[in-house]
Specification:
heterodimer, A: about 400 residues, D-Maltodextrin-Binding Protein, domain 2, seven-stranded mixed sheet, four-stranded mixed sheet, about 45% helix, about 15% strand, B: about 525 residues, alpha+beta, Methane Monooxygenase Hydroxylase, Chain G, domain 1, Periplasmic binding protein-like II, four-stranded antiparallel sheet, 15 strands
Chain lengths: ~400, ~525
């Protein structure tokens, strides 16, 4: 009988392939969201269903899976109407033909922070309703750092002073990690792709990762690695040191909050120290709701986003479910008392949106390699960054 | 069919359930017009029923389930990989051509005079066709939209009735005005409605309004070109993209057959060919070292545990199998932390013992050493288990005879244990070699193929093996993922692994014992 059972399992497998999963059908809405957003939407959806008479299905997905799942399921007719995602997916989504531009009244724009709307705008079209902005800031342990340093000189002196103590580290950050290192490269003029603000487009052939400003900023940071005041560690190790209270400062984002709170660390958020008086500009990532181009309910989906999601109440609830800086102005005001959130918001206000063109895929690997060579003192900053840019160019062309 | 015993009834019942499910999925496939899979399924149903109902096909009953699984899980993915390797499937080429055309044709732009209209919908119960009344948001002009045509009307038109007297029109020719909730119920119909207005198309914008749009592109099927309606420029399909004469390309692109292009790229692209030899040699060394070290330690421990004078054998066995029970994903990441040169425990211990710290993860040689050590930790329990089994099967008489002849322990091992264990485990060692040849997890999780090589023009790291390097090439490529290239690389690696394995079998004669037994 075992063999028959085996055949049955095989058949179940075939059926699994053919049975339509929840697919976009006229008059029904399907939303893909991660656990935190699903939690909020679960409370709100019954209201919407009641008012609109339209059933809404929530599908919980890991945030990082949404982009890949969409590419497979949407063209097969099994995708959602609405999905959440990061603004820097836009280039790929548009190139793949998977996202539909929004067509919303002008008043909608007044409710949101400009940087968030800019991030979700691609060649003149708005593609998403943003709900949060994330960027990195200086996170410091108040027990070790009573007053956060404002300039890089103060910062470096403090790092060396603390690192001189037994088993304490003044500063470290995940490496090789372009995302966290980027602010130090931008203060003095580095950039990834040149952005033409008038046209609203990036030029993938104008790469500024090895320009004078980027190199000088990296050299200032690397001095701390070179004299071993800063250990070269990966993310997990950094987080470990931070939560045991042995690490005084790091550059990180809101995702470190839960671990810090659990460990009972008394921490503060401050802007990343200025370099020669210039502000470092971290990457800003904006998350939002988008509409699938395979949706059979463009108008309904948009109505749900404008009438249910883009409201002060919903945006504030999203913030409460996971305290990340809201970009809806009214909701942000409600969250104004939260020092930590304000700290990240201020740091993010100095930032630039992460480029959303597909060419970004070519950047990370080469950039990581260069940083690993620099901070392990295997290669000079200029030479390593020149090689990286060379590799990126070769890959894009 | 003489005796209807219980077993027989159960068989018929299970087969009936199977058939019911199969027919059900066949219907779904038919509705979805997925004919190729439907054909496979129908043939499958017939074969399975024949095999289990006919008495002539007795042996096939045992082979069939395995065959089904093999086709589903091995043959199908293999063929699919071959197919993908001849296409440009990847970022920008996800959709098929029809889907891409309809996406491009769905792109609209707003005309210079971007009018917007509030609308009301009217419906008579018996007649399905909706009637729409539009009011220009700017100048308040009224338009009546019936059966795809619009005509301008005046407020005093006799067809427009205000029965309740509240200043709002709520009836047209016996059609009642729909409330918002009813509009939502009919939104799918209204969304499809198009009216032409001054060379523009008027269509639904949101639940309250219509607006003017113009289609940006039109596909000319006869000539297979996409025409930009604003500039009359023509875009021809080139490698899965509509491209104009200046080389500008439209999004989205589509999947298309590329022939041998992906394979050609593998040969001609210097990013592949330049580091190939270096990566290949290390891949080979890595696989070989992995097999030798894990087998060596596994066999050694198995012999120890096999010794009669050993105490607490069960406890040791459990402890030694533990590494095998922890998912490699977790343990590799833990090892990565322990090997961290500055804060890792390995270097701290070395320093405490008065030795100098070692640049694990930063230096190519030492990273390779660390990788082999980590893989040894991950892999020896498996080899130990295999060896324990093989040792059990060696007759004690052989050792007795050897001892009488005065053989030393080493001679017993060298001339009895090792040859007999190798006979039993030879094929498994070759399989282990092939596995480690493609052991992406350990390489990538431990150090992502790094350390990077200073001055390299290609992104191959110092510990990248073929599979991890091609992962980088295919998924961190210039414009996102390139599944077509990845599939081509997979084919290449498949042939290399197959050749190496074949050579190993041939060279070591590992299968000969099996043949003799036939």
């Amino acid at each position: 009988m075992k063999k028959l059972l085996a055949v049955l399992i095989a058949v179940a497998f075939v059926i699994g392939l053919t049975a339509p999963a929840a697919a976009s059908t006229p008059g029904e809405l399907i939303i893909w969201a991660d656990d935190n957003r699903v939690e909020v939407l679960e409370d709100l959806v019954p209201e919407f269903e009641e008012e609109f008479g339209v059933p809404v299905t929530l599908v919980e997905k890991a945030f990082g899976d949404i982009l890949d799942d969409l590419a497979v399921e949407a063209p097969a007719g099994e995708g959602p109407d609405i999905f959440i995602g990061a603004h820097d997916w836009l280039g790929e989504l548009i190139e793949n033909g998977l996202v539909e531009p929004l067509d919303v009244p002008g008043v909608f724009y007044d409710d949101f922070e400009e940087v968030a709307l800019d991030a979700f705008t691609y060649e003149e079209n708005l593609y998403g309703v943003p709900y949060t902005l994330e960027s990195v800031a200086l996170i410091y342990n108040r027990d070790l750092v009573p007053e956060p340093p404002e300039t890089f000189e103060e910062f470096a002196a403090l790092v060396r002073e603390i690192s001189a103590e037994e088993d304490k580290y003044g500063y470290t950050m995940p490496q090789p990690d372009p995302y966290h290192t980027y602010p130090f490269m931008t203060a003095l003029g580095g950039y990834v792709f040149h952005y033409d603000a008038e046209e609203g487009v990036y030029d993938p052939y104008d790469i500024g990762l090895n320009n004078e400003g980027a190199v000088e900023g990296l050299e200032m940071l690397n001095d701390l690695y070179a004299d071993e005041s800063v250990p070269y560690v990966d993310f997990d190790t950094m987080e470990g040191l931070l939560t045991t209270g042995d690490l005084a400062m790091t550059v990180g984002g809101p995702w470190l909050q839960p671990a810090l709170d659990d460990a009972g660390i008394d921490y503060g958020i401050a802007p990343i120290p200025t370099m020669k008086g210039e502000n470092p500009r971290p990457f800003v990532g904006v998350h939002g709701f988008m509409i699938s181009s395979f949706s059979e309910n463009r108008v309904l989906a948009q109505a749900l986003l404008t009438e249910l999601v883009a409201t002060e109440d919903t945006m504030y609830r999203i913030y409460q479910a996971e305290p990340r800086p809201p970009v809806h102005k009214a909701a942000a005001e409600l969250a104004a008392d939260d020092e930590i959130t304000q700290g990240f918001l201020e740091s993010g206000a100095e930032g630039t949106p992460m480029p959303d063109i597909p060419e970004m895929a070519a950047v990370w690997g080469a950039w990581e390699d260069a940083l690993s060579l620099i901070f392990t003192q295997e290669q000079g900053v200029q030479a390593a960054m020149d090689d990286a840019v060379e590799q990126i160019r070769a890959s894009i062309e | 069919m003489a005796s209807f015993d219980k077993k027989h009834i159960l068989k018929i019942a299970l087969l009936a359930i199977f058939n019911a499910l199969a027919v059900w999925s066949a219907i779904i496939l038919f509705v979805q017009r997925n004919y190729p899979i439907l054909a496979v399924l129908v043939v499958g149903i017939i074969i399975i029923n024949y095999v289990y109902l006919s008495s002539k096909t007795y042996p096939a009953k045992y082979i069939l389930p395995g065959t089904v699984f093999m086709i589903l899980l091995v043959v199908f993915p293999l063929l699919y990989t071959v197919y993908i390797s001849f296409t440009n499937y990847g970022t920008g080429h996800i959709l098929n051509k029809e889907q891409a055309i309809s996406r491009i044709e769905a792109q609209y732009y707003r005309p210079e005079d971007p009018r917007e209209f509030d609308f009301k919908a009217f419906k008579q119960d018996e007649i399905e066709e909706l009637k729409l009344l539009f009011e220009d948001q700017e100048d308040g002009r009224l338009f009546l939209g019936i059966e795809g045509e619009i005509e301008e009307v005046i407020r005093e038109d006799e067809r427009l009735l205000d029965t309740t007297g509240d200043g709002e029109i709520d009836e047209i020719n016996g059609n009642q005005r729909l409330e918002r909730a009813d509009i939502i119920q009919n939104v799918a119909v209204i969304e499809q409605m198009r009216f032409s207005y001054n060379d523009s198309e008027m269509r639904m914008r949101d639940l309250n309004s219509f607006a003017l749009y113009r289609p940006a592109f039109e596909y000319d099927e006869a000539r297979d070109v996409m025409v930009d309606l604003r500039t009359n420029e023509e875009y021809r399909p080139v490698e899965g993209r509509f491209t104009n004469d200046e080389g500008e390309r439209l999004s989205p692109g589509f999947r298309t057959y590329l022939g041998w292009d992906n394979y050609q790229e593998l040969i001609t692209d210097p990013r592949v060919s330049r580091p190939f030899l270096r990566v290949f040699v290390w891949t080979f060394q890595w696989a070989l070292l992995s097999v030798i070290t894990t087998f060596g330690l596994g066999l050694f421990l198995a012999i120890l545990l096999n010794d009669q004078s050993m105490k607490l054998v069960k406890l040791y066995r459990v402890l030694l199998i533990l590494p095998y029970a922890i998912p490699a994903f977790i343990s590799v990441l833990i090892w990565r932390g322990m090997f961290n040169p500055t804060v890792g425990i390995v270097n701290r211990m070395l320093v405490n013992f008065g030795l100098s710290s070692i640049p694990w993860l930063h230096n190519i040689f030492w990273t390779r050493v660390a990788l082999v050590l980590v893989n040894l930790w991950l892999g020896f329990p498996y080899m130990m288990l295999l060896s324990m089994g093989a040792l059990q099967s060696i007759s004690g008489n052989l050792y007795e005879a050897a001892i009488i002849d005065g053989a030393s322990r080493w001679q017993q091992f060298r001339y009895i244990t090792l040859p007999l264990v190798l006979v039993a485990l030879g094929p498994l060692l070759i399989a282990s070699f092939a596995f480690n040849f493609n052991n992406f997890n350990v390489i990538y999780l431990f150090n992502e193929g790094r350390p990077a090589i200073a001055g390299a023009q290609t992104p191959a790291g110092g510990t990248d093996i073929l599979i991890s390097y091609t992962y980088r090439l295919s998924f961190e490529a210039g414009r996102g993922s390139d599944f077509g290239l990845a599939a081509a690389v997979t084919m290449l690696i498949f042939f290399i692994t197959a050749a190496v394995t074949w050579f190993n079998f041939k060279f070591t004669g590992a299968l000969e014992e099996v043949k003799e037994n036939e």
